[in-house]
Amino acid sequence: MAYNQHKKNVMCASSSESFLKQNTLIKTVITFLEGKFMKEEILLPRFLTEMKPVDPMTYEDFLQQIVEDVENTNPDELEGIDRKYYEYKKLNIQRSRRLEKQYSPSEKLIEAVNKVNTPQLWLVITESWCGDSAQSLPIIAKAAALNENIKLRIIQRDKNLHIMDKYLTNGSRSIPVLVAFDNDGNELFRWGPRPKAAQELVSSLKEKGLTKEEFNSKLHLWYARNKGEEIDNELSALISNIHIHDLS
Q1: Per-residue pLDDT of the chain (248 residues; tens, 9 = 90+)
Q2: β-strands 120-126, 177-182: how paired?
Q3: 120 with 149: CB under 8 angstroms?
Q4: Which residues partner with 179 through β-bridges?
Q5: So where are the chain's domains?
Q6: What DSSP assignment string belongs to the chain?
Q7: CATH entry 3.40.30.10 includes domain 53-247
Q8: Residue 243 to residue 115: CA distance in whole angstroms
Q9: CA distances (Å), 97 to each of 60, 100, 181, in order?
Q10: How confident is the model over 148-198, as pLDDT tens digits?
Q11: Is the model's pTM score more than 0.90?
């Protein structure tokens, strides 16, 4: 009996030690994650908090939200504009994934982005159903990822009209809009809602009387053929222009 009791005590001690080790490991992981998220918040500039954005997201989180929204929606229950938005989202997932595979930043863009030596926030205002956004966000995200000084955040327009209305295009809430800031909240550059060549194409097609569905089809054909080159060039020029002003 003494042996059995000793065996039980050893087993209990072993189980207790195992539990303590597991508990310590869990606490370590939690502490690490808390530190990681606290660091993330610290790295975000104060002016962004003062703008009170609703649900700012990373590019990965934004795209994942669209995927989950499509997967968890029964299209047979949708009508009218809701059904259209559902179809737009499905298309946008395909467009974004295709660009992620096809597009690589040009040497010119890499050089310009690598010269950024102080913190910048790139804020994109958009919506998940926006076709122009699906054709530009993957490029913006790849550019931002080249330099750890650049933090990209995405906000949804209709949840953030108080911010959207500061960055109108010819008086309209056109999206996507990319606004770059330094760490003090000074605006460095603005881009959007689409490349100049694409905007000229849309204006020309509208003048010819094409419907929205008709010119959208031609617009996305243009995007597919251009493969992000025009957006790459425009971003390169905007970022390089910051360096020129810094040197002057």
Answers
A1: 554 554 444 444 444 455 444 555 444 444 444 444 433 444 567 888 888 999 999 999 999 999 999 999 999 999 999 999 999 999 999 999 999 999 999 999 999 999 999 999 999 999 999 999 999 999 999 999 999 999 999 999 999 999 999 999 999 999 999 999 998 999 999 999 999 999 999 999 999 999 989 999 999 999 999 999 999 999 999 999 986 656 55
A2: antiparallel
A3: yes
A4: 123, 190
A5: 53-247
A6: -HHHHHHHHHHHHHHHHHHHHHHHHHHHHHHHHHHHHHHHHHHS-HHHHHH--SS-B-HHHHHHHHHHHHHT--GGG--HHHHHHHHHHHHHHHHHHHHHHH----HHHHHHHHT--S-EEEEEEE-TT-HHHHHHHHHHHHHHTT-TTEEEEEEEGGG-HHHHTTS-BTTB--S-EEEEEETTS-EEEEE-SS-HHHHHHHHHHHHTT--HHHHHHHHHHHHHHHTTHHHHHHHHHHHHHHHHHHH-
A7: yes
A8: 8
A9: 11, 5, 28
A10: 999 999 999 999 999 999 999 999 999 999 999 998 999 999 999 999 999
A11: no
Locate 162 and state its tokens: 């108080």
Amino acid (1-letter code) at residue 209: G
What Rg value do the Cα atoms of the chain yield, rounded?
A: 24
CA distances from 162 to 51, 127, 193, 210, 237 (A): 9, 15, 18, 33, 29
The answer to whether the CB of 127 falls within 8 A of the CB of 157 is yes
CB 62 within 8 A of CB 154: yes
CA atoms within 13 A of residue 36's CA, in its CB half-sphere? 6
Pull the structure tokens for residue 67: 């995927």
